[in-house]
UniProtKB/TrEMBL annotation:
Residues 344-357 have a biased composition (Polar residues). The gene is mutL. This is DNA mismatch repair protein MutL. Residues 430-572 form the MutL C-terminal dimerisation domain. Keywords: DNA damage, DNA repair, Endonuclease, Hydrolase, Nuclease.
Length: 615
């Protein structure tokens, strides 16, 4: 008889396995501890972070505190004060409930807890390492709880090695902290990073909290929305069209004060703006939905950021109508016909839940083809154009380029240097633009098809990189100085980039309080770019590429080149096209853009001739 193979895992190992789902990075620890502080009734929460949370994460609150027994029990798996029966899952009004967070954290870190209830003379101090309690003793402590998490993943080195750079991990921490701060504007939140105050949010109302987080410019860009029915209540703010961005930032949904992600509800918001926004813009919104907990299921994922709705189509239509109503009241939408796609009228003082918006298929978001903006008349032509380009590329197989996607350098090419002598500037024939995306330029042996955006990115990248490493660039002064207002986290990053930006030709100066004075931009970029929009896009793209392996100068040069380059759809005259091609072939590496994309494709007349001969 063989020995039995199945056995129970030790608690320490089981907790480490569970931690893999609950604690994915330092930001996960911040989320769990700060949400516990909110549930404890605190009105002041202080977060201290060192080395992006890898060395220390400390959360201190003035909440209800815990008894000695509760403090010890809180470290056990599935120990919670929020649930007693399975039915309690459907009446939840707290952030936490699973009883896994603290047990997961103490399994992979060195933790110290100090806690005291206001009615107790002494508090309790606990020291835990790898799920093992090292110390438990009475201790003097203020009312509330303080949890210090040191050396996260110290006993799981493989997990620690998967963490990103400090700047990336810190960005995730700020995002989690801001989400909770937006959900609870009546609580004061302070964030200290490496012994420096990074973010201080005083208690106030939601509008004040949004402005404090995202900057003073939002003071005039917020549109309030509010509607109450027997099914749900909707409140919060959406941004005016001018608050929209080209990236997916500034979009927050809260269900019963819990942050969630929902592409389905995001679609409802987008549709509410109708044709006010271009299809590549994303609206700003901070929206709160209050709904009976029995109508939703938050126990879908350990992070609790995914929720199932009993009837999500109903919520979709209520949300869309409420936002349209709010935009209409703000005189942003010229005409609003709520009856056109909803069989209920939000123009009344209250939506009528007894009249179901589901009775008409036209209201259903599953009919998204009815909601999606119409394709421009040139859409079919663009499709044919794309098809033609794919076929054209088959004509040319000699340009085989292997590119390092990090540096943009060519590793291998079958196109010899002698081909570069057959360059467009030497031909004298006027180039022409194809669909305002490509430039066709004749050469002796055929023609080149140049991607205008990729080519301009290569030109700007090399210019910016040279400027950063050698000499300051010329600046074009603005007619009137402008003020750039940024959220605290963005202002901190912008301040760190100021020396390089000034070297590049930006006349930019910190003004305090997250504000910067913009007096000029690089002469290279003058005329085609709005100063404030350029800097905001630059900052967002730089944040998105913080984990790239390239050095700071290369990353900034690449980011600015991508941000400032002429885009597809931009009309160019003959002089501009000639200049672009001349400057491209003057580059050290004209074949590829910094992201590795081809700048041009060469077509040989011999290949075309063979096609006409049927060979």
């Amino acid at each position: 008889m063989t020995d039995n193979l199945v056995q129970l895992l030790p608690d320490a190992i089981a907790n480490q396995i569970a931690a893999g789902e609950v604690i994915q990075r330092p930001a996960s620890v911040v989320k769990e501890l700060v949400e516990n502080a909110v549930d404890a009734g605190a009105d002041e929460i202080n977060l201290i972070v060192k080395d992006a949370g890898k060395t220390l994460i400390q959360v201190t609150d003035n909440g209800c505190g815990m008894s000695e027994t509760d403090a010890r029990m809180s470290l056990e798996r599935h120990a919670t004060s929020k649930l007693r029966t399975a039915e309690d899952l459907f009446t939840l009004h707290t952030m936490g409930f699973r009883g896994e967070a603290l047990a997961s954290i103490v399994a992979i870190a060195q933790v110290e807890m100090k806690t005291r209830r206001a009615t107790d003379e002494l508090g309790t101090r606990l020291v835990i390492e790898g799920s093992e309690v090292i110390t438990q003793e009475p201790a003097a402590a203020p009312p509330g709880t303080s949890l210090s998490v040191r050396n996260l993943f110290y006993n799981v080195p493989a997990r620690r090695n998967f963490l990103k750079s400090d700047s990336v991990e810190l960005r995730h921490i700020r995002e989690e902290y801001i989400r909770i701060a937006l959900a609870h504007p009546s609580i004061r939140f302070d964030l200290h990073v490496n012994d420096r105050l990074d973010l201080s949010l005083t208690a106030g109302n939601l509008r004040q909290r949004i402005i404090a987080v995202f900057g003073k410019k939002y003071r005039d860009l917020l549109v309030p929305i509010e509607e109450a029915t027997d099914v749900l209540s909707i409140g919060g703010y959406v941004g005016k069209p001018e608050a929209a961005r080209k990236s997916k930032v500034g979009q927050f949904f809260f269900i019963n004060d819990r942050y969630i992600r929902s592409s389905y509800l995001h679609h409802a918001v987008t549709m509410a703006y109708d044709e006010l926004l271009s299809k590549d813009s994303y609206p700003f919104y901070v929206i709160f939905l209050e709904i009976d907990p029995a109508r939703i299921d938050v126990n879908v994922h350990p992070t609790k950021q995914e929720i199932k709705f009993e009837d999500e189509r109903l919520i979709y239509n209520y949300l869309k109508a409420t936002i349209r109503h709010g935009l209409g009241r703000a005189s942003i939408m010229p005409t609003i016909d709520f009856e056109a796609d909803n069989p209920f009228s939000p123009s009344r003082t209250s939506l009528q839940p007894n009249v179901s918006p589901l009775d008409s298929d036209e209201a259903l978001p599953s009919k998204m083809n009815r909601e999606t903006p119409h394709t421009p008349s040139g859409g079919s032509e663009a499709g044919r154009h794309a098809s033609n380009l794919r076929n054209w590329e088959k004509l040319y197989d000699n340009l085989s380029v292997e590119v390092d996607t990090d540096t943009g350098e060519v590793l291998q090419s079958r196109m010899g240097r002698e081909d570069e002598n057959d360059s467009p500037p030497a031909q004298g024939r006027a180039p022409y633009q194809l669909h305002q995306r490509y430039i066709v330029s004749a050469i002796k042996s055929g023609w080149l098809l140049v991607d205008q955006q990729a080519a301009h990115e290569r030109i700007l990248y090399e210019n910016f990189l040279t400027t950063l490493r050698e000499k300051p660039a010329a600046s074009q002064a603005s007619l009137f100085p402008q003020t750039l207002d940024l959220a605290h986290a963005d202002a901190d990053l912008m301040s760190s980039l100021l020396p390089e930006l000034n070297q590049l030709g930006f006349d930019l100066e910190a003004f305090g309080g997250g504000s910067f004075i913009v007096r000029g931009i690089p002469a290279e970029l003058a005329g085609r770019n709005n100063e404030l929009e350029l800097l905001e896009k630059l900052l967002q793209q730089y944040k998105n590429n913080l984990d790239l392996s390239s050095d700071g100068h290369e990353r900034l040069a690449r980011t600015l080149a991508r941000t400032a380059a002429i885009k597809r759809g931009t009309a160019l005259d003959d002089t501009e096209m000639r200049s672009l091609i001349d400057r491209l072939f003057a580059c050290g590496q004209p074949r590829v853009a910094p992201n590795g994309k081809r700048c041009y494709v060469k077509y040989e007349l011999e290949e075309v001739e063979r096609l006409f001969q049927g060979q």
